[in-house]
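Whether sequence alone determines local backbone shape is best considered at the level of individual chains. Part of our work consisted of pairing the sequence of a single chain with a tokenised description of its backbone. This step matters because it turns folding into a mapping between discrete strings. For completeness, the protein is quoted in full, as a sequence line and a line of structure tokens:

_____
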Amino acid sequence: MCHVIVTCRSMLWTLLSIVVAFAELIAFMSADWLIGKAKPSSSEDVDNRTRGSQEPYHPTLGIYGRCTRISHMQLSRRDTLCGPYAENFNEIASGFWQATAIFLAVGIMILCAVAFVSVFTMCVQSIMKKSIFNVCGLLQGIAGLFLILGLILYPAGWGCQKAISYCGPYASAYKLGDCSLGWAFYTAIGGTILTFICAVFSAQAEIATSSDKVQEEIEEGKNLICLL
């Protein structure tokens, strides 16, 4: 018989697992990993009606994507063009970034699988006689290791030609040159930290769903158990 068990700690772990998976996925897909050096507007893009020059803009570069401004549309709100610069995996600008993409993709797939499974932990608390919370926590720890490897390798690719075109000639491995880090990089770091927090917190979710109070309510024949 399926017992639906909802506790404060198990629900918090489930929500954190879903948030972490989405945060890492969004960061991976974003082009805002590197913010390039400012590029001034050309004289052709000066608005004759306002007789003013437009402020410089900052192109952005991701692991496999980029955002840049189309010159003849610089005065429009839809002047920024974002999309992948690499049509296939081999066209990613650096071998280090290729490795980063692999490690991050594996970690994110594990996190997404755990996030999917976490929704059903209210009804299923064990699999093959093992706590599903402990299994998911172990998987989250493994995913966190993949994410760390990817984030460590990513700065090693700052010396590739693509990064130099955005960050200037002084850019090199682990040196940003004229670039700065974008929100996607910080989101990936924050998501990685939360991944390990989720892995540790899964043990608390297991304790909460197997507590004496839960067992007492199961013995009383209750199918819906909610402990806050």
Remarks:
- Helices lie at 8-29, 95-118, 132-153, 161-167, 183-209, 212-219.
- The chain has one domain: 4-36+92-226.
